[in-house]
């Protein structure tokens, strides 16, 4: 898979937009009261029929309809979107929290399916598939040396639970082909990356999105960490674009006292629906911190807003994205769907944190980039707050509406000014691909190393930093890695650790020097 590095800043914007698109605050129900029959609707149907039957050239009317739907929704708001059938399955699967397949992370490397990692306890791991293995054939279908569409590739690896697929694997170190019969199984897509103890009393839980399984994952981790002695809790919502608001509400319920308001919504008819905390939660007392940044959106903001407005904990980081719209997803018969904004949500004090979108979708999503330019990510005083949108918490603290959650404790981005693109670059797929290729060449030098020995080895060398810098310098002249060398090395080392030792090893490295966590822990 070739990457055009000169477009990295554009990739960053697209990735953010997709993240927020997938992570809208979702609320599903029937299509009742959606678009009553009227003359305009009949006119549109007739026009499509006229084109289909009378137009001089052959046209794909399905494509015309899809473009029409897109254009209609573009007149509404940035989060009312059409999802074609080709994307709907993947979106649904991502939010469901699991899928049926063989359980691998892979990378298309030189037209070959290369295994980055077999998912722990998944079908492939149990069968003996290893990192670095290449999948040559699946049930006799050739997968290498051809540009196979992604959906076709997934169809070969996924299937019904319990069904078998025969894989022909090339194992590079031994230079041999091996056949495996793998029984497909349910593979979890974790929405809680990790739950661990930062010290003897402080627990840390990282939530990457709010999927169907998030509350269950969170509660399981919280229960385990409390048994280990946790009396303080850090919930990391950085770069979490949202998802199911019900999952965020359920987590808030564990943190807030009975009958405390969590969130309320209001539709165009003025109907207000309030959601309150209910039964005794698992963590209603004890110090609580929530980490957010400019990419924390939607359901993340519901959770952070509920904690802030009820004076329950401390919000740490930078101003969140600013999405306060609620979508309802409605399916079409062809497998596509429309995700339509049906209400606004408000935090307990009455704040709408939706940022303006009157200048169009493109500028709406690029607003996050403007925060770099106006200095907001480096200096809290640069945050533009509407003084007319002041609200008071029960304890009299002032909070603001009109564009995201402003943290109680501001922590600037740790990358140098004018070098902000590196911040997103180091968490992109480019890093993972680079690390895989390095391991593919030199996997043996890490063989049998303990994690401690690995850290000593990586901290003592600049080899991989220099190689990564050299790679980028060929394509992206304006990104200067050396200005942020130690941070770049940390993320490179962490990615090596993830591919060699697993997810927890990644966080063991990145959290050690995390500026937001250090801000919290140093206050204790």
Please write out the topology.
Layout: H1 8-22, E1 25-26, H2 39-54, H3 61-74, E2 81-83, H4 85-96, E3 98-101, E4 104-109, E5 112-118, H5 123-127, E6 134-138, E7 141-142, H6 150-157, E8 164-171, E9 176-183, E10 185-188, E11 192-197, E12 202-207, H7 214-227, E13 232-236, H8 245-255, E14 261-266, E15 272-276, E16 287-292, H9 299-309, E17 314-317, E18 325-331, E19 337-346, H10 361-373, E20 390-392, E21 398-400, E22 409-410, H11 421-425, H12 429-442, H13 451-459, H14 463-473, H15 485-501, H16 503-510, H17 515-521
Helix pairs in contact: 7-8, 8-9, 12-15, 13-15, 15-16
GO biological process, one term: proteolysis
Transmembrane segments: 7-28
Domain PDZ: 88-143
List keywords for this structure.
524 residues; 2-enoyl-CoA Hydratase, Chain A, domain 1; disordered N terminus; alpha+beta; six-stranded mixed β-sheet; Pdz3 Domain
How would you summarize this macromolecular structure in one to three sentences?
One of its GO terms (cellular component) is outer membrane-bounded periplasmic space. This protein is α+β, with helices and mostly antiparallel strands and 524 residues long.
Commentary on this structure:
The protein has helices spanning 8-22, 39-54, 61-74, 85-96, 123-127, 150-157, 214-227, 245-255, 299-309, 361-373, 421-425, 429-442, 451-459, 463-473, 485-501, 503-510, 515-521, and strands at 25-26, 81-83, 98-101, 104-109, 112-118, 134-138, 141-142, 164-171, 176-183, 185-188, 192-197, 202-207, 232-236, 261-266, 272-276, 287-292, 314-317, 325-331, 337-346, 390-392, 398-400, 409-410. With 524 residues, it is α+β, with helices and mostly antiparallel strands. It has four domains: 5-95, no CATH class; 98-188, Roll (Pdz3 Domain); 192-325 and 342-410, 2-enoyl-CoA Hydratase, Chain A, domain 1 (Alpha-Beta Complex); 421-521, no CATH class. The chain has 17 helices and 22 strands. Strands 1, 2, 14, 15, 18 and 19 form a six-stranded mixed β-sheet that branches. Strands 4, 5, 6, 7, 8 and 9 form a six-stranded antiparallel β-sheet that branches. Helix 7 (214-227) runs parallel beside helix 8 (245-255), helix 12 (429-442) packs across helix 15 and helix 15 (485-501) packs antiparallel against helix 16 (503-510). The protein is globular, with a radius of gyration of 24 Å. It starts with 7 loop residues before the first helix and ends with a helix.
